[in-house]
Specification:
two-stranded parallel sheet, single chain, Rossmann fold, 10 strands, binds NADP nicotinamide-adenine-dinucleotide phosphate, 211 residues, alpha/beta, globular
Amino acid sequence: MTNVLIVGASGAIARHVIAFLRGNDSLNTTLYLRNAARLADLDTTAMRVVEGDVTDTARLTEAMQGQDIVYANLTGDMDVMARVLVDTMDAEDVKRLIFVTSLGIYDEVPGKFGEWNRREIGAYLPPFRRAADLIEASDLDYTILRPAWLTDKDDLAYETTTRDEPFEGTEIARKAVAAYIMTLLEDPSKDIGGNIGLSKPGTDGDKPAFM
Ligand SMILES: NC(=O)c1ccc[n+]([C@@H]2O[C@H](COP(=O)([O-])OP(=O)(O)OC[C@H]3O[C@@H](n4cnc5c(N)ncnc54)[C@H](OP(=O)(O)O)[C@@H]3O)[C@@H](O)[C@H]2O)c1
């Protein structure tokens, strides 16, 4: 049995992962979030739920004990949160981290879409970049995700790019990001040290079609 801790479990991508995890007998899941009521509409009966802020080190440490994989689905002061996560994982000797950031943190988005993306969200990206930098500098077995613009479509299609490749595509369904995360939870040896751009195939353009 593999123990999985989902931090920021009320997040929109995490909610899809929780739905995928239902009925999975090989993963023992703990959900860590600030307000458990936010999951009231999901079936979490086989899962442990812990209420806490990610910056509450004592509470996070308690939830971290015995975990094999941490999947962080956070937003806000990403560098502050990543620091707490990495330190707590180190202290509890938990190695495997899956951490969701954003496209654009390396200015890796080419062309007109790259310019548009920089104008739209460039100002918000520095904490995401700092979070990725400190995770890469850790000795954790990490996979950093950089999804394209997120949609709530019922769609599982994704393609990936590596850290050194130009980003492809403009958008992706949260459900498809969750499907990729499930491949990591089911095979934790996959994409260790990876820094993965995620988008829906065939969505190249000057901006996401829905914008
Ligand atoms: N929107 C886009 O097009 C786009 C594109 C690429 C990447 N991204 C990024 O991808 C990530 C995941 O996306 P998403 O849609 O799943 O995000 P989301 O729904 O906004 O989820 C983020 C979660 O972080 C939690 N959180 C924030 N601060 C916390 C804290 N101090 N302690 C515990 N939990 C905390 C929030 O919990 P509460 O419920 O307690 O607030 C929320 O559930 C985000 O960082 C997002 O910015 C977004």
